[in-house]
Amino acid sequence: MKIIDKINQSIVENKPFFSLEFFPPKTKAGIQNLYDRLERMARLEPAFVDFTWGAGGSTSQLTLELCQSAQKYFALEVMMHLTCTNISEAEIRSALNSARDAGIKNILALRGDPPVGSERWVKRDDGFAFGADLTGFIRTEFDDWFGVGVAGYPGGHPESASLESDIAHQKSKVDAGADFIITQLFYDVEEYIQYVRLCRKAGIECPVIPGLLPITNYQRFKKFTDFCQTKIPREISDQLELVKNDDAAVRAFGIDLCVKMCRELRDAGAPGFHFYTLNLEDSVKAIVGELGLIDNASSRRALPWRQPTVPERNNETVRPIFWSNRPQSYLARTEAWDSYPNGRWGDSSSPAFGNLNDYHLIRSGLGQQKDKRLAEWGEPQTFEDICNVFVDFCYGKITHLPWCEGSIRPESKRIETTLVELNRHGVLTINSQPQLNGVDSADPVYGWGGTGGLVYQKAYVEFFVSPADWGMIESALKLCPTVSWHAVNNAGDSSSNIQEGVNAVTWGVFPGKEVIQPTVVDSVSFEIWKAEAFSLWKAEWAQLYPEDSKSPVILNTIADEWYLVNLVENNYINGDIFKVFEAAGLLIKSRVRDSAQSVNEDMLNI
Amino acid sequence: MKIIDKINQSIVENKPFFSLEFFPPKTKAGIQNLYDRLERMARLEPAFVDFTWGAGGSTSQLTLELCQSAQKYFALEVMMHLTCTNISEAEIRSALNSARDAGIKNILALRGDPPVGSERWVKRDDGFAFGADLTGFIRTEFDDWFGVGVAGYPGGHPESASLESDIAHQKSKVDAGADFIITQLFYDVEEYIQYVRLCRKAGIECPVIPGLLPITNYQRFKKFTDFCQTKIPREISDQLELVKNDDAAVRAFGIDLCVKMCRELRDAGAPGFHFYTLNLEDSVKAIVGELGLIDNASSRRALPWRQPTVPERNNETVRPIFWSNRPQSYLARTEAWDSYPNGRWGDSSSPAFGNLNDYHLIRSGLGQQKDKRLAEWGEPQTFEDICNVFVDFCYGKITHLPWCEGSIRPESKRIETTLVELNRHGVLTINSQPQLNGVDSADPVYGWGGTGGLVYQKAYVEFFVSPADWGMIESALKLCPTVSWHAVNNAGDSSSNIQEGVNAVTWGVFPGKEVIQPTVVDSVSFEIWKAEAFSLWKAEWAQLYPEDSKSPVILNTIADEWYLVNLVENNYINGDIFKVFEAAGLLIKSRVRDSAQSVNEDMLNI
Known about the structure:
Chain A is an alpha/beta fold. The first copy, chain A, has two domains: 3-295, Alpha-Beta Barrel (TIM Barrel); 318-347 and 358-605, no CATH class. Helices cover 40% and strands 16% of the residues of chain A. The first copy, chain A, contains 22 helices and 18 strands. In chain A, the strands form three sheets. An eight-stranded parallel β-barrel of chain A has the order 1-2-3-4-5-6-7-8, surrounded by six helices. In chain A, α5 packs parallel to α6 (163-175) and α16 runs antiparallel to α17 (416-424). The relative contact order of chain A is 0.09. The interface between A and B is medium-sized, with 29 and 29 residues.
């Protein structure tokens, strides 16, 4: 999708958007860190992310790779920077061809800074002199394939004679085919207002997005604004001087200032906010949170899962539930499909999942995360220790499990007490959803698909369990005729009460549409997921420890001997998926536990 | 589907089935009448129908045609008779090839009666002598393509030496590959019981279906039983003699007798009942009604509409609602599709409906029905007269409209008062369904898809309306944001508040399955239906009258000037589709009308 379309939609809906800029890290560890960060920041649902151009050789290759991965695995809308610094027309054409082949639809066309070490910018004989030339080239050579953004300079371009000549330059870039302008950073909102006024006067009609750098560190702020020759209003520099020796205070001041600026910018008509993140996470997260730009994210979801932005996957409408906590793995393993789904799920034809290993190409930096993982998961000495890791995850005390790339989802909070109880009893849950009986599709927790509809869910729980406990559960399941179940161990012993087929567990009914059923449980892909799920005990957990220590022995025993089980309670009106655990003696009947009652409007309105 | 599979299923479920036998009529009018009858009797949901073999030439061709049409247009399971009388092996092979090409899956393999005029049966040198030979031939030449039934003679075969030699014959037919036995008619239930006992003793294990001829007319009964040398128990002939001069009494006696026999047969273990209808309708209808074989038909429906029995249409899962009262027309117009649906409805690609005229090939006998139609619809002199025809249809006083091949459906009875009121005000309704919010899928009126599920509906109403009234309705629709609508006139002026797309208006949620959504409203096929709907004013109604009379003028005016409109109330929880008519002044607000409240379990249990 072109970013200009998103911007325009946001203008029509009168909802400000935000976007995030990153740069290619210099080290392998830095790259891995950035991927982790992208994964987390993707959940904030930025309108798009962009990556600066690593002028020349391997760094520009990395820019392309980052753009591509952000699209393919993190389902982010992407814009790639491209500069004219020290690059020939032929190389630019080749870079644009690569971008197009990678499915990238947006370019930020820049002249670029002088190369490091040079004082002033020099045009190459076989290259371009201005952002406008590059913009024109993109339009001439690639027609409408790319959306094009260009830079704007509210404080004036450092090399330009006057603001007037800047505006003339700006006009030429827009006339050459740019869709929108992103401004250089500034701290004086009045500068932006003036600048937009001048643009409009000059006949520039396109959106002008303010570019903002939250102050996170005094030294870094000084260095950066000096380099950019940014004008800092006296009031701000005075206040900053007062706290400059207290890092936490600087950060807090930076957040407050940025929030204040955003509100003023919004009042002045800015359609959204572009953040220069410098690859940092916390301040921007706090700012967009404060501005209320993420709280209603759910109701904006078109489907319960984040839709990929690569054009090939535009028509994707259904996924198996198993990967819902490992979306990147799912995207990687289904990358080679011609169609999504690969055959309707209803056909129960094998969906031809890609090799699990492909996914690890972008997740290869596990070593980098070892300390974080060890801190979260400790060194389990007993099965009980392992149960406690799962309990901590249920409570939100830790934010990762090998099967869950992020914290437990808000909708699972409803059944927290029960999940904790189950995990204490050795039923190690890795995925669940409560049942819904017609909840407003705009509900912030459960909603998706836009307004005006009703969404439904069948209760689902998926867990690892010891062979002995599975025996008890299997007997108990005989008393629960409305539950569909499938159990399998790593050796492939598989049993189930269902025919091969597809069970829709999430669906939505909307005005004027077919019933949309984006999440399913099916036996064929469960068998594929099972291989991934068992392998993660070893690949992501056991290998953290020395081979001769106790932890890997326990973890490998679970991987080799335990069962992976999924249960679906088909009665989404008044079924109780946890009854089976009571019947199996794994939940104490008398103890208070969360109601499994179906969520409906009446309950939510209490 | 093979009939033996249906029989076995019926045995497993312990639900008796029934089947109906017809013969090829001798005249064109008779054929048209039989088609009308098939249309009505199809609604009784017989397990299958069979057609006797018109030995030689055009009559056998007619048998084939009847079988084919019953499958294709009436969605009936079909069995074709085939006899060895006066036919060569090559001709039999050719007949079987034709049957296979027509998708017929079941043959009743008979020796046949002696040709008319001959006293005894003579084997042709190039033909077969016994049903067993024909059965063996079918198995040898066509392997498992056909299911094969054979005849049984509880009263003994007229030409056989003894019941013992009969049983030996029977055994040879089953050994040659027959799946089941249908008996010759009898009136002594004990004969059947004895016969089955002898069969079992001889090692014949297949189902033995009793063949029954309800007595409908004294003379015909005498003639038929004499010809078949049927033994009539003294008790029956005595009682019949008492009423033989009173036709109505004979028919009533025949019904009572047959019901009594069926109950005794059921107690004796008969899996179902085969009725020799002699192409008559009323007695059999009364008998299966009395036996309770049709009252729970709804809950047995796999989908809300009757599923076609031709193998090509096995995977059909979705249809536009427009043809729901003209299913044969829909089947005829979609006959040439390669797949059902032809492209998912969601694709909104043109579904390539066949020409309307193709349908009339099997409905060409309109002339035959002229009197019936005139009696129902009269000779309307005013618009009001026409409104009254529609009102009569709502009340069930008449059973046809050009757009409705049968009486108003039971589910529409809920909103009868409102429909009547609308039609009185000139809103001529031709299709509607009430809204359902999770009704038991086994509900006798609303249910389909088997047990254990919940079915849903969005309220729907489709009607013709004058341009002036349409103007008022269109204004009123602005007050009803949850209603999707589409209006079009014969000239093609079309307006709608919906994007091209598909609105599922009937869906069901079942354990372990995807959400099934068998009925949709979509703009593309509405435009095709519209042509058919407007043409019916003229083709089926106006042409009943002399050209220079008043009726056709009024009817043609409606066809040429009025609008055809469909409305969907998307709020199936607590919407009210009729509010728009109140707002348009076409329903009196203060007058009591049926609740449009969504049907749910609580309401049905009151």
